[in-house]
Design a protein that fits this description.
The complex is a heterodimer of chains A (274) and B (320).
Chain A: H1 3-30, E1 33-34, E2 40-41, H2 47-51, H3 55-87, H4 93-101, H5 108-119, H6 124-131, H7 145-170, H8 173-181, H9 186-197, H10 199-214, H11 218-224, H12 231-239, H13 245-269
Antiparallel strand pairs in A: 1-2
Helix pairs in contact in A: 1-13, 3-7, 3-10, 5-11, 7-10, 7-11, 8-9, 12-13
Chain B: E1 5-13, E2 18-27, E3 32-36, H1 43-51, E4 58-63, E5 66-67, E6 78-81, H2 93-104, H3 110-120, H4 136-148, E7 154-158, H5 166-183, E8 186-191, H6 194-200, E9 203-208, E10 211-216, H7 218-223, H8 228-233, E11 238-240, E12 243-245, E13 251-253, E14 263-273, E15 278-283, E16 289-294, E17 306-310
Parallel strand pairs in B: 3-8, 3-9, 6-7, 7-8
Antiparallel strand pairs in B: 1-2, 1-4, 4-5, 9-10, 11-12, 13-17, 14-15, 14-17, 15-16
Helix pairs in contact in B: 2-3, 2-4, 3-4
Classes of the chains: A mainly alpha (274), B alpha+beta (320).
Chain lengths: 274, 320
Amino acid sequence: MTLRRIFLAPAALVTIALFLVPMAIVLAYSLMTRGPYGGQGMPWTLENYQRFFDPLYGEILLRSFWIAGETTILCLVLGFPLAWFLSRSGKRRDLYLQLVMLPFWTSFLVRTYAWVFLLRDTGLFNTILLSLDLITEPIPLLYNHGAVLLGLVYCSLPLAILPIYSTLERLDYALVEAAADLGAKPFETFRKIVIPVSAPGLRAAAFLTFVPSLGTYLTSDLLGGGSTILIGNLVQNQFTTARDWPFGAAASLILMAIVLIGLVVVTRNNEDIL
Amino acid sequence: MTDVLTLTGVSKVFPSHRAVDNVNLTIPPGEFHALVGPSGCGKTTTLRMVAGFEIPTEGNILLEGANVASLPPYARNVSTVFQNYALFPHLTIRQNVEFGLKRKSDPGNIPAKVAEVLDLVQLTGKEDRLPSQLSGGEKQRAALARSLALAPAVLLLDEPLSALDPNLRKQVRLELKALQRRVGITFLMVTHDQEEALTLADRITVMNKGKVEQTGTPHEIYLKPRTPFVAQFLGAMNWLNGFGLRPEATRITPLEPPSGVPSVRATVLDSTFLGNCIHVLAEMPNGETITVEVSRFEGTHKQGDRVQLWWNPEDELRFS
């Protein structure tokens, strides 16, 4: 055994034990039959996969893609100016970067609950608006599509900012000046030079926001309150209340396959991603 | 209106310092003008104000008679060749050149115009390469072509040769000068390289600490420097009591100097062979040293040799 292999062994063992083995179990479950009281057993079947093509689940999948897409676009649109500001902020840059990372210091769950306290009928926003007599009844801010979207954007935004920041930081500002020098107005410079040159960062940001948003279940559960069932909630429900592990396993594998195919298609022509 | 570019009382104050201080400059059409000075002297800031990347705190910048001091870069008829070329990395050479042309030319003329400027800088056949596929010299020429295509009133060059390796630099220098003569466009170049300024420019402006020290032809600047700074910055200088003397104007002889010229006794400390000439370092009786540039045909001088140094009085550079 070479030294190289010895050093690689721990990482390889962790990968096998914590990734490949569970994946194999999930694959096996997805091909089994649901037992009469939950659980799973023989015979082998493809029925779980076929079930997924029911229009009911198709709608859930479509809704998941839709909200993940909205999240991604909002994160890029909001993250880009922030990343630009960060990359041009000189001495204060490290401080601002720490501020961007600050949310990661607290639990994701706690941060999402905080939004519940802010948005609910007796929450901060409604209380303020009511006390200012701007409204007579609380506005329903929570338990709808908008609340889920807000939660997703809030959680993903730092993940979008960082890769965009890292490409903008390396962007030679002389390119922006050269474009202006050649007669391009600011918006044209942005469109024809800044965006194409920072495309690798934008692609990475899009992936880092889209993929986790697609599989989310906590945000949609807490802020959507069951009104917005996403594919993540579907999987979660199969493993908990529905006690249909084989179908849950099949649904999660289908989601993973879709993401992987997407990744391959996007990276085939762009080796620079991530 | 005869001058293409005139700067009157131009200053630029940054929060930390005064980068450019009351600069006046007049450049006639077709001139190759060099702004020289040590780093931090304000030459680059001056160029950037002409380009529109910086707005002057005070003063006017007249381009073809109109004050452009507060106009954005895209509204000025000037174009810049950047130090690191700033070619758009995601566009081919052709697309780089077309970028500015699209706004200035009608579409039918663009292909011919691109071909013309690429031929001018000898990049024909490399139209479809990306900047990363070009050598340093080719990138520099591509950047030149991109700017020349717009036929600007003034072409601005920011240390255009500094990113090239030294062997290439001398060759490109000659090409640049020939190119400027051929196209007849006014060039304003920033450089810290005195030799580059002397060989390329029709006139030179020497800057120091944000101010103009002197403007003149290479001859005037080198032979009649107005300040000690100018004398020191362009070419080497020996300082004797009260005046300066160029090393090549200083003569050395083991014998008696000609009668009627100033002279001083000295002892040779060192002799450095530079290929095309020899630099002899000699110590005068007062302990100060002086550098003498001699040809290898003028004999050799060894350490410890007793010599006489002399010069023609008209070569003494005096400053009031």
